[in-house]
Automatic annotation (TrEMBL):
Gene Ontology cellular-component terms listed: nucleus; perinuclear region of cytoplasm; plasma membrane; ubiquitin ligase complex
PANTHER family cross-referenced by the UniProt entry: DCN1-LIKE PROTEIN 3, RP42 RELATED
Pfam family, one: Cullin_binding
Entries under PROSITE patterns matching the protein: DCUN1
Primary location class: membrane
Keywords of this entry: Cell membrane, Cytoplasm, Lipoprotein, Membrane, Myristate, Nucleus
Name under which the protein is recorded: DCN1-like protein
Stretches with biased composition (Acidic residues): 306-315
Length: 315
């Protein structure tokens, strides 16, 4: 594993590093020099070809023509730079070649993708747990379609998006990614991504299995846990309504529910367009709270008096 990581850390030259030897401007210049028919082809003879041009060329400002000719050799160099695979990000260079090399360290031998085993090694080298929030955020930035899998395109485009081409670079981006996930609109995007991420696309799933949904709800709300979340997850765990899967609509609406409905559920109304599962949850939760309150009221007061015991111990 260490050898693989070391290989990925080796800097490499950029792709598409064309030499840019073509110099059409320069060749054209020498050709014009020959056409002047006079002395040698040295730069001292440049005024000769100009004076030999047609009068229309002179009217077009001969000085400008000479300036363009002198600057033309720079253009191929700029074009070569444009083809270089070195990109600038915060003053640090990163390249597609190094991203591809990093991907190849973890890709499957048969499939052109990083699969479960490769993902475990990748997370281990990043010093993160595959089941932690940072990995979910990374998958979101990579726009991964399936859990425990990064295709080559997802990995490459994701690394380009976060401007990193090494393990160290990815680790250095985690703090910024976590801050980004706290922005309301960004979190909303992450939240909706998480539902799709949890589906088994190969089986054509359209709803999340209840247990997977519970795990993903705990995960996606890692940084900012709604007050009602644990009650909601208790309800799903006890499953009084017999729900087997969570639809996309229910998943999306729960985020709105946490933002609009207070923890005491007093402002919840069945007349609003909430999923029916929410009606069942609120009814179940209110009944549970009522029973808990009745239990506290009927329980006999404790006969233990710590103050007295402490006083007796002192005497």
């Amino acid at each position: 594993m260490g050898q693989c990581v070391t290989k990925c850390k080796n800097p490499s030259s950029s792709l598409g590093s064309k030499s840019g030897d073509k110099d059409p401007g320069s060749k054209s210049h020498h050709k014009k020099g020959g056409g002047g028919g006079g002395g040698g082809g040295g730069s001292k003879e440049e005024p000769g070809p100009v004076s030999g041009k047609a009068s229309s060329d002179l009217l077009a400002n001969g000085t400008k023509t000479m300036e363009v000719t002198a600057e033309t050799p720079v253009i191929p160099a700029l074009a070569a730079d444009a083809h270089k695979d070195e990109l600038m990000a915060n003053g640090e260079e990163f390249s597609l070649l190094r991203i591809e090399e990093l991907f190849c360290c973890y890709k499957d031998e048969q499939d052109d993708a990083i699969l479960e085993e490769g993902m475990e090694r990748f997370c281990d080298d990043l010093c993160v747990d595959p089941a932690e929030f940072r990995v979910l955020v990374l998958a979101w930035k990579f726009q991964a379609a399936t859990m425990c899998k990064f295709t080559r395109k997802e990995f490459v485009e994701g690394c380009k998006a976060i401007k990193a081409d090494s393990l160290e670079g990815i680790c250095a981006r985690f703090p910024c990614m976590l801050l980004e996930a706290q922005v309301e609109e960004k979190f909303k995007d992450l939240y909706r991504f998480t539902f799709q991420f949890g589906l088994d696309s190969e089986e054509g799933q359209r709803s999340l299995h209840r247990d997977i949904a519970i795990a993903l709800w705990r995960l996606v709300f890692t940084q900012d846990t709604p007050a009602i979340l644990e009650c909601w997850l208790d309800f799903l765990t006890e499953n009084p309504s017999g729900v087997k899967g969570i639809s996309r609509d229910t998943w999306n609406m729960f985020l709105n529910f946490t933002q609009v409905i207070g923890p005491d559920l007093s402002n919840y109304s069945e007349d609003e367009a909430w999923p029916s599962l929410f009606d069942t949850f609120v009814e179940w939760e209110m009944e549970r709270r009522k029973k808990q309150e009745e239990r506290r009221c009927t329980e006999p007061p404790s006969t233990e008096t710590p103050e007295t015991e402490e006083g007796g111990g002192g005497s």
